[in-house]
User: Fold this.
Amino acid sequence: MVIADSKWPEKGCGYLGAGGIILVLFAFYSILIKNNIVKICKKNLKFIVLVIGLNVVFLILALGPNIGLNSHVLFTVHYPGLIKYVLEIFRSTGRFVWPVCYMVLIISLIAVYNTLRNKRTAVVFIICFIIQIIDLSGYYATKSEYVKSIRSYTGFSGQFSDSSLEGYVYCIVFDMENWAEVGDFAATNQLKLNDTYLARKDYERTDKIKQVILSELEEELDFSL
Assistant:
């Protein structure tokens, strides 16, 4: 399951993994076949209601404010000011699907363990773990390549000598494609940046500042010509 998000679509990924899905199936088998489902519900009614309630709340939050399919936003939920302010702390509300996945996996682990309680439990866990690693290996490789890519510098900083940077205070950035290299360059030369990678950046305000700087530069160029 992927919750659509216009800016951070990958943050709403709710895939349990092949190993996780198999574990959930084992858990259903354990609860429905090996145990009395009615007896379990009566014994753990408060806990079951709490878990279901939390999952429903998390799923509702994960679906908004942009509801869609993959990268296509179908419609947007407009939250009240206070709720919107609180949710913006998380940058992507799609992340609320993660606790749902964690609860599903943890409850499945407990269900399988309480039912088998022997060597077969370890075998089931090991098999699911191996399948999970194999299934997600492509994702891990992709993330590893991404981390390497942001550290593959172009070497533009070598074009500047220490003397050529004397008297400069600011490093103005318009394109954030090489943000890691630019950040290192600014930090090494003690320059202030107008933009960099931030987890919870005010993009609207940052873009406005860039437009102001660009307008001022254009005016200076026109004046000098």
In short: The longest helix spans residues 119-149.
